[in-house]
Design goal:
This protein is mostly helical. Helix 3 (32-49) packs across helix 13 (270-296) and helix 9 packs antiparallel against helix 10 (205-213). It has 13 helices and no strands. Residues 1-17 have low confidence and may be disordered.
């Protein structure tokens, strides 16, 4: 009877993955700032997904009769355009809602691409060593020696304005940072006893990497990717402000800031204020969540 019950009992035991997930949820519930960051980020993600349903107007529709309207609670404003309009009569609220799509896409896919490229380069450099390490480390040091904003602005001016180009630009130029972090972690893991024991019993190098090294890189990579996602949202806004991000007919927070810059002297500060607040809130949510991820994935910080 005991032999018949044992397999069923084993099936009921939680898997290591579900156990780690439950542990992360417990840590998240105890961290109010992380919960706040999650709520803020989830809110903007939902805004980006459901922008067509939430936006009161077409973000590209022009209504010159309603141009330069202030927010609805100010004198001369209208609740038809809650946050006001620009000089072409386009609804600012609708443009901010649609602009969340561009910023979040750039941040997420740019950080993902940088993480993947940096992971491959860092693992090869740290594990193979020799001339491979020297070559990759030399390229990484060369790219990191160039001021990042200067590099991004020059490349953006050369490749042209499109969403794909902006994502590729941020992903490729940020990959060296991930490669340096991954290389250092791989060198540390290679010297640990469990990896040396695995190599000593004749385990193939690819299996050592996939089973014992790469899984231990998840914490540092996720934490770094979170903070870089926040930084890329700022960088995209900066490029848009300079007219080097997505085309001007695409509503993005950077393009809105560029438009607002032209309107500040005309007494329409709301055109810059509210896109700036959206950028700041999104970055705040991501950074709060990133702080929690750093602590939750570091065994030395666990409570």
């Amino acid at each position: 009877m005991e032999q018949a019950i044992a397999p069923a009992a084993l099936l009921q035991q939680p898997s290591p993955v579900s156990g780690r997930f439950a542990h992360l949820l417990r840590l998240l519930r105890r961290d109010r700032l992380a919960l706040l960051g999650l709520v803020i980020l989830a809110g903007f993600v939902l805004i980006a997904i459901f922008a067509p349903l939430l936006a009161p107007h077409d973000p590209l529709a022009q209504n010159l009769r309603a141009s330069r309207l202030p927010p609805a609670w100010q004198e001369g404003g209208s609740w038809e355009y809650p946050l006001g309009t620009d000089r072409l009569g386009r609804d600012l609220l609708s443009r901010i809602l649609y602009g969340a799509r561009v910023s979040l896409l750039v941040g997420f896919w740019g950080a993902t691409l940088a993480c993947l490229l940096g992971l491959v380069a860092g693992v090869l450099a740290g594990y193979l060593g020799g001339w491979v390490d020297a070559l990759i480390s030399g390229l990484v040091n060369l790219l990191l020696s160039i001021p990042y904003l200067v590099l991004v602005i020059v490349v953006a001016a050369l490749v042209g304005r499109s969403l794909v180009n902006v994502i590729l630009l941020f992903g490729i130029t940020t990959a060296p940072l991930f490669a340096r972090v991954v290389r250092g972690e791989v060198l540390r893991l290679r010297a640990m006893a469990f990896v040396e024991a695995t190599v000593a019993i004749g385990t193939p190098p690819l299996r050592v990497l996939l089973r014992h090294i790469v899984p231990n890189l998840t914490g540092p990579l996720v934490t770094l990717a979170t903070f870089e996602m926040s930084a890329m949202i700022f960088y995209e806004a900066g490029l848009g402000f300079l007219g080097l991000s997505v085309p001007p007919n695409v509503p993005s927070w950077g393009n809105l800031l560029s438009t607002g810059r032209e309107s500040l002297m005309a007494g329409m500060p709301w055109l810059s204020l509210y896109p700036g607040l959206a950028i700041a809130l999104t970055a705040l949510g991501i950074n709060l969540l990133g702080d929690w991820l750093r602590d939750a994935t570091d065994p030395r910080m666990r409570r």
